[in-house]
Design brief:
heterodimer, A: about 290 residues, alpha/beta, Rossmann fold, two-stranded antiparallel sheet, 11 helices, about 15% strand, B: about 575 residues, 19 helices, 21 strands, about 20% strand, globular
Amino acid sequence: MSKKNPEYDFKWCPGCGDFGVRRALEQSLNKRIVDLEEPIENTVVVAGIGCSGNLVHLLEGVQPYGIHGLHGRSLPISFGVKMSRPELNVVVVAGDGDFLSIGMEHIGPQAQRNLNVCVVVMDNAVYGLTKGQSSPTSDLGMITSSTPYGKIETGLNPLRLYLTLGVSFIASAMSSKIKDLADLIYRGMEHPGFAIVHVQSPCTVYNDTYEVLKGNAKKGIAPIAWNIPDDHDVTNWQAGVNLLDNGGIPIGLLYSSKERVTLDDKIQSEKLPVPDMEKLFNTYQV
Amino acid sequence: MKKKDFVVRFAGEGGQGFLSAAQGFASANTTAGYHSQTFATFPSQITGGPTWMQARIATYPIHTRGDELDVLVVFNEEAFQNHKGELHKNGVVLYDSEKLEVSENMRKLGLPFEKLGKSTGNARAANMVMLGALATLVNLPLDILEEFIRRRWGDVSRYGETIVPANIKALELGKEEALKSSFSVGELELPTKSKHDQILLNGNEAIALGAIHAGVNFFVGYPISPATSILVWMQKNLVGEGKFVYQASSEIEAITALLGAGYSGAKAMTSTAGPGFSLMSEGLGMGWIAEIPLVIVDVQRGGPATGLPTKTEQSDFLSALNPAHGDVMLPVIAPGTVEECFYATIAAFNWAETYQGPVILLSEHSLSERQQNIIRPDLSKIKVENRNIFSGEGEYQRYQSDNVSPMPIPGSAGSYVANASEHDGVGDTTHLPHRHVEMTNRRFSKLSLLQDGSYESENLDSGTVILPWGGSKGSGREAYDRLIREGYSVGWAYTMFLHPLPPDLLSVLKDQDLVLVPELNYLGQFSSYLRALGINAHSITQYTGLPFKVGDLVEMIKEKLDS
């Protein structure tokens, strides 16, 4: 919504990482309007369910098209949008529970197809809107409302998962570094293929990780986030895997390959003539 | 007196190749001008297992596969034992004497199909020997089958020169042996060629063709019996610029992909069966609340859960009507014949475009496997609807009206959020009580746009009507005809537009003392819906996995009429 809508009463909590993601997405979309002279109506933002999904209603300024869909299904909905209208710019916004738990089954197929959409995952390692349950990216041992004695599953490393599944553009970012994030989202949208920008977007109420991510010298807390060095070869898949072996959360572009053709460019049947109804009937003529 | 129709059943084990021979037999006779209908049933496996197929050939249009068999062709002992009870008293069993012995005292003809077949020089001509014998038993001239052989194999240059004469020889061998037996089940009258062009196809093919004519340009589906053949057909034929067809990773992906495509302006469709339909529940709810045109084909099979994957049942009606949680009631169209499969699919797209929401096309296994000749549709007479698209400029309140409103399409002005949550005019989430009331009313009032459904009715004065739905139409119709011939006072009503019902039909049914609903489920699903609409409806149910036999249905209706 471009103006304050008195009827829409959803608010993110003060300090929520999703504010930064929203700002970055708006900047990257505005850059498309200016640099590519693409009307905003050419963009469809497909949102999942959770705090993150409300981003589609909270965008300020000129309004793209939006779908606020079903929990876990933002990716296959975007598949339908993109494959029916390949000329559209399709962006998925989803949370870690939405994308990596209930929606996990959809990542592999789209990676294999190299669907040409850009996904922005807002990871706060917790289910915020249902008041703080554990998510796939919560750490082992983490106390949440659904793991009162500590989480007994190993925390998922989403970047390693994306590499394994064959996602062709993988970036890692922090919601507080808006300019860098906007740049990565822009490049993700421009990437010909399946792009995921995975954003650390802390929840100030149930899992405030700002300090852990950035560190606090006074308290002797070392940052777990670190910048991917400039000399990292983003086209080298194995280099990406090796980088993850260093632990912590690398920030920047991890992997980008344009070797594989996008799904919409692979459809061979498009080149065939549209069958004529009478000719189809003829094949059943007696 | 010459016969007007005859029924033959082929029974054996899957993979023996007689199904295609039987289809060829039906096809050959249809070409000659007969009306034909086939029915097949098989276990959920590729090779082996008890499989049978029935073909009915008639000089007049027929509605069912036929109850009693004039000829039973069997390929093993088990098939003989399982099916002999359905043979007419004058019927003949034709069997493969290399596979089984029939010692019972009955009209029987055992031939070594394979041995005779091989003697023609074509090792695979056994089925042609069988068809030659079969045709002779029912006094069909062989030239109909010869013509079929020439059409089928004559153009195949690799084989044509050797296979065609060998197969024709095989037919003659079969004929000679059958003549020796001196059995006959009566001579079939010669057909009168219809003045309309005929096409021969099954229900799933008719659905696929209907979709193409309605303008489908986006199809995503997942393999599932008995709907798979629609997906496979689409993969082959939904081609060309602007068309997209894909095998999804699940039914959940299929329905949600459709949501994205329908929102983006496509005419989107998927096909599935019970288990897949259950997985689509949440997506269908979103299609309803976000107002996205979609067509979902549910080719019903036996349920619940995995149920009976390759048997027929009409037990998804209530699921189709109320597929999702919350206040949802989707339009449902259920074709009752192969011909109606074609027209119902176009109607489903037209309804989806008109009211901007999901429409369920409820077919069933017996239609998907039924081959039938139908009059080749005259496309110039079929109306195809397209949704009302927003063409204005600037900001637009997509959902701000009491009824359907123009739909903006991405790429043009009018951006909004299609929201699965309750929403306001632009699609932003809201919890205000008056909005939920307004929007719920809006969604249900759109159904009032779908009142153009056609229906059939006859003899309404008697106070009692037979009202079958879906694939039970054929048995219901023949049962009705028989009851009328026997002097019963009973009426007939039928529609494929189950929800919303054609308003005139609804009022006609409300005036009846009794509405009898033959349907293939335990619960009596359609009649419970009719009773909720104020109609005194009672079901006649069967849940064997097979369609009604006309004779059985006649007896069941009489029981109801007499009580």
